[in-house]
Amino acid sequence: MSDxxxxxxxxxxxxxxxxxxxxxxxxxxxxxxxxxxxxTGRNAPRMLVNPAFADRYAATPERLLMLVMHELHHVILGHxxxxxxxxxxxxxVFDAVINALLCRAFPDPRGIELFxxxxxxDQVPAALLRPAEGWDPDxxxxxxxxxxxxxxxxxxxxHRALYSPGGASxxxxxxxxxxACPEAAAAGTTLxxxxxxxxxxxxxxxxxxxxxxxVVRSIVEEWPQPPEPIQGRSLASEVRNAFxxxxxxxxxxxxxxxxxxxxxxxxxxxxxxxxGPVERTIATPLRSRARRDVVLDLLGSPVLLHDGTVxxxxxxxxxxxxHVYLDVSGSVSGFVGVLAAAVRDCAQIVHPAxxxxxxxxxxxxxxxxxxxxxxTTGGTDVRCxxxxxxxxxxxxxxxxxxxxxGRATGIDAETLSGMRIAAAYTSTEIPGDLAPxxxxxxxxxxxx
Length: 448
Known about the structure:
This protein has 448 residues and is an alpha/beta fold. The protein has 19 helices and 13 strands. It has 3 domains: 3-233, no CATH class; 242-264 and 320-443, 3-Layer(aba) Sandwich (Rossmann fold); 275-317, no CATH class. The strands form 4 sheets. The protein has a 6-stranded mixed β-sheet with strand order 9-8-7-11-12-13. Helix 16 (336-345) links the parallel strand 7 (323-327) and strand 8.
């Protein structure tokens, strides 16, 4: 191993953040092909590190750790799935979010020096990618004087919020940047990590590097939460309107209908059935108190047989339709219209409220699906499904998803284990996130 590789493997304190397993899984390579660093590759992911950059800006273990954590946070915050193609301004926003989050979560001044040394405090937009001069994590009220002197008061306020416990939303940051920083200036800013084509941020990481994604998620589950968690920093906190016109693909209706029938215990007629008391109408000689019988009796035309009822056990309609959880996260953004069309084709046996999920559940009606309307944060989190099911007492469900929803633990795993769940996947390459809870599954065609 080279000296740089050894330094990267040694930069994480033993037993901290569970990163040693990742660093031994990833093939660490010195490379001049990237200006700073990048994680790329398929089943055997590689971390590319520019040795000249590492020698100049990440010469200490604390700075190297920040560099590694910066790359991983693009995965953690879902930046690899939210946008199929990121613009220079998007990448600038992503890095500003991550750098602020790392400074707040890991406030070791020796690590923060990676940002303060690499980015000048008196240049725009570089000043946004580092804390302001004099920033104190215990009293984060400092505004960037460089931004104020440049006349960017709004951007200075958003930057200060970004480095404070209250945080700043993605939309606030992007709006302030669009006002202060043209796309050309954003494109000319050197960012940490691999923002080049084919790198970590190109999108579709689930298909390009599933092993990396799975390991990173398992690592994050073991991380301690910071004393003051930062809110509103990720795109995953922004619920926004989206549009995907329905598009039918042959065969999907039959596959989804079979899964719905299994999940709901449906009869061939599509009714949810259960065993219980059934009341039947019979003819009986016993006199009834029906008004018609009384009148005919008074007119001298007595009725010999009357309508009566008996109760016995049998199959009866339970009145329940199957709940559908429709994945509308960024990783399935190109398939939402196909999935929505399949749901609409099975309208008679699905619950009228379609539970569109990303990191939150935002119900949509069948009319919404017909119009291509839904709401999403772009991210994915199985916890929102479990919480919705608990709150609404959902017992039978079908999930339409690519399967990359994260692992359920604790009470969320208990909730999903107590349900009858079927899954309609968008690919035959199925991740293991939902495997413990899905009793039956099939694959829908997502291309015509």
